[in-house]
Write a structure and sequence with these properties.
Elements: H1 22-25, E1 29-38, E2 41-46, H2 53-66, E3 71-75, E4 78-83, E5 94-97, E6 105-108, E7 112-115, E8 124-127, E9 129-134, E10 149-152, E11 155-163, H3 167-178
């Protein structure tokens, strides 16, 4: 069970409680993932417990900050994903919502849970890239174009596989992908 899930306060059957507009609840899903924004790009980091999601999101935000890029945490452990398509937006956007109980909190393995500043946190954000942390042997050396995108909540987002527990390499892969984004993407 997640460090953040409090069965006495949260809805144990569906995970943490989220502050999500009623019209976006239907069809939404809870994902065990870290989420953040760098510049104008929302990033979901999905992986098994202990795969390095929290460490990677912290490193990504630190590097962005060092390079003068805006960086903010949405959620460190769980997100609720919904689509703006219910509002008639075309093309629809994938939106990640932070759990209410863990807003502005992040896990530091071996230390505990710490709070981040309000200026470096968002309660929700549009997501553009899904990073799957996987075993390095399962990664293709040269991924195909078919693997470059994935569908979540009926929305196509960019997709990248990165090695779990290898923060430096994963960070380099993510920033390489971000360097290919064009203004307005």
């Amino acid at each position: 069970m997640s460090l953040y899930l409090d069965p006495d306060r949260d809805e144990a059957r569906s995970g943490p409680i989220f502050d999500i507009p009623d019209h976006l609840v239907d069809g939404s899903e809870i994902m065990h993932a870290a989420s953040l924004v760098i510049g104008r790009v929302g990033i979901l980091i999905r992986g098994a417990t202990g795969s390095g999601k929290s460490l990677l999101q912290r490193h990504l935000r630190q590097v962005a900050d060092q390079n003068g890029l805006y960086a903010a945490l949405v959620s460190d452990d769980y997100v609720r994903l919904s689509t703006s398509g219910h509002m008639g937006e075309h093309p629809p956007s994938l939106i990640a919502f932070a759990p209410m109980a863990t807003r502005r909190l992040q896990e530091v393995r071996g230390f505990g849970v710490t709070e981040i500043s309000r200026t470096h946190h968002l309660s929700r954000a549009v997501m553009h890239l899904l990073v799957d942390l996987t075993n390095e042997e399962e990664m293709a050396r040269m991924p195909s174009q078919d693997e470059a995108q994935i569908e979540l909540q009926a929305v196509r987002v960019d997709h990248l596989r990165a090695p779990e527990r290898q923060c430096t390499l994963a960070k380099d892969l993510i920033f390489a992908r971000l360097s290919t984004w064009k203004a307005g993407d």
